[in-house]
Amino acid sequence: MNDRDTNVERAFTELFQRMPTEHAPLGFRDTVMARIAAESARRWRWEWLAAFAVAIPSLIFLMSTLIEHGDELSDGLGSIANALLGLEAWDASTSVYVDGIVLLAVALVGIAGLLVTHALLAEEQTRSRVHVA
């Protein structure tokens, strides 16, 4: 730290010491906290909208695929589970085909779940800050 930095710091200290100390008017804090809560609620609305926009079409597609090809999906998932768990009942000659669009739909539903979780956590943190402060 050099003398120039200490001179600048002294100037700021003197400036802030000369400022008049006034208390905030009654209700000021409550008004500010309510405004922050309203702004943060608007901020997370887009997460809910994006989650619904991504999840609804994906869920409809997954439900229609499950209705049309439910037995094939259950056989495929069972074969994958047996292969991953290393069960003796699994045969190496078994082939498993996974539709890429189904995987994409499942991934999009997962992303929508993450968006909803983030929005819920952010709303809870906002509520706890408003009640505590």
Give a brief rundown of this model.
The chain is mainly alpha-helical. It is 80% helix and 0% strand.
Our estimate of the beta-strand percent is under 5%
Which ranges are low-confidence, i.e. pLDDT below 50, for 5 or more consecutive residues?
Answer: none
Order of helices and strands: HHHH
Rg is: 29 Å
> How many β-strand runs?
0
Category from helices, strands and their pairing? mainly alpha
Total helical elements: 4
Largest sheet: none
Mean pLDDT across the residues is 78
Shape summary: elongated
Structurally, the number of domains stands at: 1
Distance between the ends: 37 Å
Fraction of residues in helix: over 70%
Structure, described:
5% of the residues are buried. The chain is mostly helical and 133 residues long. Helix 2 runs antiparallel to helix 4 (100-132) and helix 3 (45-85) crosses helix 4. It has helices at residues 3-18, 28-43, 45-85, 100-132. The mean pLDDT is 78. The protein has one domain (28-130).
Topology:
Elements: H1 3-18, H2 28-43, H3 45-85, H4 100-132
Features:
133 residues, mainly alpha
